[in-house]
């Protein structure tokens, strides 16, 4: 691909990296700053309160999906992407400068709560805005490859956050991390958001959006009323997201805790397993995306769903008894290889379901709802089963969610050859391709 195409991929996906860096460092550094915002006393209660504020971000994601999806459909993809990164920067700065309890009492908690609400809004809109932009800005035969970089950037953000945590833990004293150094990752996040804002300020609108002659004429663009006209596709997004998001959170954010708490693995070893598995997972996303451009989206989605339905229980059971680094890494890589069938292409599949005038909102709101219901609750459900003495019940829960999505993947139509310019009413697209010259025009700078 040419330099301009790579630039579009980088600008379109970079916000995800910053977003997930911020999301990760809040959760991982909470153990250091929880006591700073609440009265001295019960450290566990303080941490629970801090993580309760973290949970607010998940509830704000559907709101962000609605608001920023509307902006993306009415004002353009560039406007939505610029707004999301502005919210990112604001939330990171607020946390970095938030006053402690000793300085402002519960005023610091209020600042923390506002920051998490802004972060939830941003995450809710960033996914759909970047998914829409990456899909529309790519040549028809490269949409799967280009959109796969969404999860490359998301995983890179998590790895960068984990790497920064390891560096700070190894170079600074514990007291320094508790007193002031916990602010460092949020300063880094704010700087990263500033860089992405600068890059996005000069980005071009996608040709698919610019060529839509209803961009300013239709007052229903980006509205819930317009989305209701495509309710079948919206429900489809929720259903196809259900199994993928539960599996993704299980083998990424929950994996380290599972290996240390359930498998009895040392925390440093469990962290290393997660780091190595996530790095390989990040690298294989473009390969799977490119494969989908050749054989279609449904074969990869079906492979993921079949694998998750029938392999989750044995993989999670074997992980519990892995005992050491290499067996655990092998099982984690197998699980993430299966999940790649979903993560590498889910962005473009959702974008290919909707017409231009409702594409951003059509992705944003249903995805945010599915993520809040299933992805955001995955860790809680896992711990609920564990606390009830039936931890294996969670394995079956993950497999069941994948089975529901499998039904959807088997019955849905192939979207690889859909012409984004000609998605018809009801979300059904013309399956044929446009003339070659028209395809080239859709990705012209």
UniProtKB/TrEMBL annotation:
<keyword id="KW-1133">Transmembrane helix</keyword>
<feature type="transmembrane region" description="Helical">
    <location>
        <begin position="394"/>
        <end position="412"/>
    </location>
</feature>
<dbReference type="InterPro" id="IPR011701">
    <property type="entry name" value="MFS"/>
</dbReference>
<dbReference type="Pfam" id="PF07690">
    <property type="entry name" value="MFS_1"/>
</dbReference>
<feature type="transmembrane region" description="Helical">
    <location>
        <begin position="300"/>
        <end position="319"/>
    </location>
</feature>
<feature type="transmembrane region" description="Helical">
    <location>
        <begin position="20"/>
        <end position="38"/>
    </location>
</feature>
<dbReference type="InterPro" id="IPR036259">
    <property type="entry name" value="MFS_trans_sf"/>
</dbReference>
<feature type="transmembrane region" description="Helical">
    <location>
        <begin position="234"/>
        <end position="251"/>
    </location>
</feature>
<comment type="similarity">
    <text>Belongs to the major facilitator superfamily. Metabolite:H+ Symporter (MHS) family (TC 2.A.1.6) family.</text>
</comment>
<protein>
    <submittedName>
        <fullName>MFS transporter</fullName>
    </submittedName>
</protein>
<keyword id="KW-1003">Cell membrane</keyword>
<feature type="domain" description="Major facilitator superfamily (MFS) profile">
    <location>
        <begin position="8"/>
        <end position="417"/>
    </location>
</feature>
<dbReference type="InterPro" id="IPR020846">
    <property type="entry name" value="MFS_dom"/>
</dbReference>
<keyword id="KW-0769">Symport</keyword>
<feature type="region of interest" description="Disordered">
    <location>
        <begin position="425"/>
        <end position="445"/>
    </location>
</feature>
<feature type="transmembrane region" description="Helical">
    <location>
        <begin position="357"/>
        <end position="374"/>
    </location>
</feature>
<keyword id="KW-0813">Transport</keyword>
<feature type="transmembrane region" description="Helical">
    <location>
        <begin position="50"/>
        <end position="68"/>
    </location>
</feature>
<dbReference type="InterPro" id="IPR005829">
    <property type="entry name" value="Sugar_transporter_CS"/>
</dbReference>
<keyword id="KW-0472">Membrane</keyword>
<dbReference type="InterPro" id="IPR051084">
    <property type="entry name" value="H+-coupled_symporters"/>
</dbReference>
<feature type="transmembrane region" description="Helical">
    <location>
        <begin position="271"/>
        <end position="288"/>
    </location>
</feature>
<feature type="transmembrane region" description="Helical">
    <location>
        <begin position="180"/>
        <end position="199"/>
    </location>
</feature>
<feature type="transmembrane region" description="Helical">
    <location>
        <begin position="325"/>
        <end position="345"/>
    </location>
</feature>
<keyword id="KW-0812">Transmembrane</keyword>
